[in-house]
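Hi team,

Below is the intake form for SGNH hydrolase-type esterase domain-containing protein from Guillardia theta. Please confirm the fields before the structure is written into the shared record.

FORM ID: S-0412
PROTEIN: SGNH hydrolase-type esterase domain-containing protein
ORGANISM: Guillardia theta
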Amino acid sequence: MNHLFCEGKIKTSFNIGEGGRLLYYGMWRFIHRNLFLQEVYRMLDGPGAPSLIVLGVGNHELNAVRVAGTDAACPEECLCSAGFSSWFDTLRVIFEGDRYLRTIPIVFVLPSAQNEDLKPPDYAWQNNDLVLLFNERAKSIFSPSSNVRIFDTFWMTTMRMQDSVDSIHYGKATNAMLVQVLLNHACK
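The structure came back. Fields below:
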């Protein structure tokens, strides 16, 4: 788990500016509703609410969820055994069903799907590479125009550093940069 500050540094505490905190999950199993809520509430025991929650998932995890939607055995951490449709239903529960979480900006990040079985709901924006899902609170911060700037800034940054980053760590690095871009917009 990374804790990123508005000034662009990765640190171990939760503070962002004055009284704000960020929770970033690059571990997709936390998206499972109960695990996610348990973890969030555990971390909220400290002072102050998070200013932004960013949840990230990669192609590997998407494939695992796709497999889990078939008759194949579902791994223990699998988000939803019913596949993509119920996956988004689960996200809707996370985004809209919890009274406290509705007060916190949440952005869920996943790769764009090339097939029809993954149709983002109406609270998602996407380009050819990435889907960003915003809860209503996050929508009040990230307008469609700022979303374009987020994509532009993010991909310009990742293109510049792609050749110099070990492929094993590339996903983690790009996730961290995307979170930083989101933070830069949220903290303005």
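SUMMARY LINE: The longest strand covers residues 50-56.

Thanks, M.
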